[in-house]
Design a protein that fits this description.
Layout: H1 4-12, H2 34-44, H3 50-59, H4 68-81, H5 86-95, H6 104-119, H7 122-131, H8 140-151
Helix pairs in contact: 5-7, 6-7
Length: 152
């Protein structure tokens, strides 16, 4: 849980532009903040629909604070380099937007490599992750321990 000082920092943050309105209607283009438009345009250029992007922001509002070129783009390129199609990348990240806040080398590559080694190929790993993207949020040591427990 965030301490009071951290909550105040988030409330004052320029990243706090997403309205969590419960309306089921799509917001009008002019109702989006500049930051939302930038994020939406970025993800749209990588195959995400506007509704997918807005849902990701609603689930993980700190996406608004990420450096899209330095943090998000390398994650997209990583999945692409592993053979993931654009639709698989969209599925993975729209179902688990927390992945975007993770460190590529420290938090995404190790579980990916474990899954690849366990299943035998990058293609099978991508397919498994596309079906359950939350697996990338699990510590690879936990994955390994659970796998050993099942196989014993």
């Amino acid at each position: 849980m965030l301490g009071c000082r951290h909550r105040l920092t988030l409330l004052r943050s320029p990243c706090r532009h997403f309205s969590s309105s419960s309306s089921s209607h799509k917001p009008k283009s002019d109702s989006l903040s500049h930051a939302q438009r930038v994020v939406t345009e970025f993800f749209n250029s990588h195959g995400f629909s506007r509704s997918q992007t807005l849902r990701m922001i609603k689930q993980e509002v700190l996406i608004m604070c990420l450096d899209l070129e330095q943090k998000v783009l390398p994650i997209l390129k990583f999945f692409h380099s592993k053979g993931a199609s654009q639709s698989e990348i969209v599925k993975i990240l729209s179902h688990s937007p927390k992945i975007l806040r993770r460190d590529l080398q420290g938090d995404i590559v190790p579980p990916f490599n474990f899954i690849r080694d366990f299943l035998g190929s990058e293609r099978m790993a991508v397919t498994a992750i596309a079906h359950f993207s939350g697996i990338l949020l699990v510590n690879p040591h936990t994955l390994e321990a659970n796998t050993k427990a099942i196989s014993d």
